Amino acid sequence: MTDRAGASLYEHLYRCIRTDIEAGIITEGEKLPSKRSLAKHLGVSLITVEGAYSQLIAEGYLRAEQRRGYFANLPVLLPIVDFTRGNHLRSRDAVEEAERKTREIVTPLAITAASSLIDLRTGNASPELFPFKLWTRTIRSVLAHESERTLLADVPTAGVFRLREALAAYLHGLRGMNVEPEQIIIGAGAQYLYGLLVQLLGRQHTYAIETPGYPRLAKIYRANDVDVVFIPLDEQGASVNALRASAAGVVHLMPSHQFPTGLITPISRRYELLTWANERNNRYIVEDDYDCEFRFAGMPIPTLQGIDSNERVIYVNTFTKSLGAAFRVGYLVLPWHLVKRFEEQLGFYSNTVSALDQLVLAHFIESGDYERHVNRLRTMQRLLRDELIAALRISAISKRIWIEHEDAGLHFILHIDSQYSAKDLQAAFLREGLDVCPLSCYELAAKPASVSPQTRIPSVATLQDRRFTLCYGGLRREQIGSVVSAMERAVLR
Amino acid sequence: MTDRAGASLYEHLYRCIRTDIEAGIITEGEKLPSKRSLAKHLGVSLITVEGAYSQLIAEGYLRAEQRRGYFANLPVLLPIVDFTRGNHLRSRDAVEEAERKTREIVTPLAITAASSLIDLRTGNASPELFPFKLWTRTIRSVLAHESERTLLADVPTAGVFRLREALAAYLHGLRGMNVEPEQIIIGAGAQYLYGLLVQLLGRQHTYAIETPGYPRLAKIYRANDVDVVFIPLDEQGASVNALRASAAGVVHLMPSHQFPTGLITPISRRYELLTWANERNNRYIVEDDYDCEFRFAGMPIPTLQGIDSNERVIYVNTFTKSLGAAFRVGYLVLPWHLVKRFEEQLGFYSNTVSALDQLVLAHFIESGDYERHVNRLRTMQRLLRDELIAALRISAISKRIWIEHEDAGLHFILHIDSQYSAKDLQAAFLREGLDVCPLSCYELAAKPASVSPQTRIPSVATLQDRRFTLCYGGLRREQIGSVVSAMERAVLR
Fold it and tell me: What's the complex ipTM?
């Protein structure tokens, strides 16, 4: 197992760094960590990192400078991110245009801002970020070029094979996952797929979810009539001790960027979680990778699915964070023995997504349009995050705040040093037009603390430390000023 | 209750007859049953029929001829069914064209026919019946005319309101149902909605389904981990005695055209079934109206939903029989107290159908295109049925067969008088290239006979009577000859 995992880890590391250089996450000329510090950071052997770096040097993605270290090379063949395609996207001109409009209609805007809440709670991407023209063009193209037979064919239970192929290739590129199309099950959104998973794995299991966590997850599992237990987080993610002490047979995790804490589970804990899954028969980990496309910095960590050599991990993802509500499509990646069980036990079901939607998505991914869209969106969301954080840092409350877990996903933790309670602050934010929740809103269990206080999420550890989950994914750039001044008024009242 | 039901019955009867005249199901000049015989047939009072007939005479849909009876008038305002729109539909020219092609390529066709099975088992509509051009035109029109905001808006849990409004109006016209859009829940197909229903009504119930019945229904309810019992049919539909003797709390019925028997439950039995539902708290009837759009003859019978005055009936339908696999859309019509419960208990779910699919369907229904398509499809399926039956009646096996329940839906029962067993005949059909199942394939329970033999489905009552469910909905006209000669070979071998 070590060898296999080691081999896939080296490959994965190589692929992740390459993808990051290509996507501009690691920029031209940026210095990479030393081999030793990266190996330590990831909890892998020095040989693994050496293998990956050598390969990248050989292929021209890295250059080694004597006594200075390793630096990224932007390959010449890189497609330039095209900001002018699609007027819904903020090209430089479009941004200026938007700013001009904002200045022009500043009074009505102010009224709107006061009368309608700014959403920092759900963080649903603003519809204006959706690649509308590209999408409608893809639909027209699919309708024009695909045969009636293809468009009207019965969809297999697991989904249109072409989309599953496109997803397998995409997951290989983005996440370094080695997945066959046959392992992928398409369904009408993650919520539907969780219900299907309960049917597949069985209701005899106790299902564990993280706390703090995503409240709707608990509702979904409960609506499916299974026993639900809550696993507290420590500074590395879900507590393996708590998991062992629980009756859980299946645990639903968000290891790559936990909601709402933003925690990224390091590789060592990932292996511990896999060990838990291997200790008994029929234990499973549901790996919920909901916002994996929005890693802005920091080294990649392989998915649990990628390092699982005993078929214990079920990977789940959707297009909600990247494409919003336009597509109701999610997918599972099943280990092989569950692929077989799925066919036998649930193969009688019809697929829940229309052939057209699946073909449109397949074309969108195959053409590279989807990846380009995600790259653009990531850049924009990073800019948004940078500007929001910069504005907070020069604000009147800069000495009262502390930001954490801002390098991935579309939310970060804002610590506020305040004499007011978190609830009190939340109410004040609401009065100022901000819809934002303290971390405590996401505590799913009455008594989550079965681990000692020292091992819980690190905080600035004062009695006045109030933590908020700031979901900025739906924010518009021109709203940043309003957000920061509303926060100032609420905190400094 | 009697008054309310009586009033809605009169209205319903009026509306159904009017719709049938408009749709050409009752043709110009066709004689209607006498008031007395219709009242007897439907099990309603003479006054109800008199009210409906008077209204129809007043509006010009019927004319009364002294001592001769009542005759249908085709109103002048009727939109003429346009067979030339959409080349996929068989206009007279298109039929001739197809027949010409069939003659031209008779040899390759014969090879194809021999090497691939003719489907008389699932009866899925042939994709060539799908209104492909109309559909793509509607998608293009929705993309061009609806705002980005509308197309990308979050869909409410119950679905896009506009589609729910369109469906409410459509159900009023087609089925005489008085339903508010708020009662309608849109979901990714009926199978998904059954799972949602189990979550809504609860797993403590025992769910009853009809036997013979739809085998996938049993699988779906079992995959959702509920106790399933089977209710045998007598000559009127689901046996109320068997239902009373069972532990069922929820019963899933197909009263308007049962699959696979084709039975139509008369009004008197419908009231008995409602009485069963009213005898205890929390009993529900799921009314599965899957092929209601394909009634070819006979008087309309109101839906259970339409005559239910105690909120016991949940109506379910899809577009599978009318639009095939292109749309993965089904809907529930909930009684009001369940609308409330749905919001409270399951309102956290995201809807499973994309906004675009829902808007396209809404436009399709609103424009009348959907109704025109269904009317065309019904006419074509009726022609198909007529030709198939006519071909069987002049075949070499005409003296050995007997056809039943052919006036609704897309299947009928073919009785075959044979020395071979049903299984043996099925195997012989298969060897001849026909995929068709005997009724016994759909027996879902090992011992369904808790009712006495006299009250079971009427048959020609010989030991040699073999019954087959013939689903002709997916048949192409040019295949009829092959079907009949294959049957001749199998039966007369």
Answer: 0.77
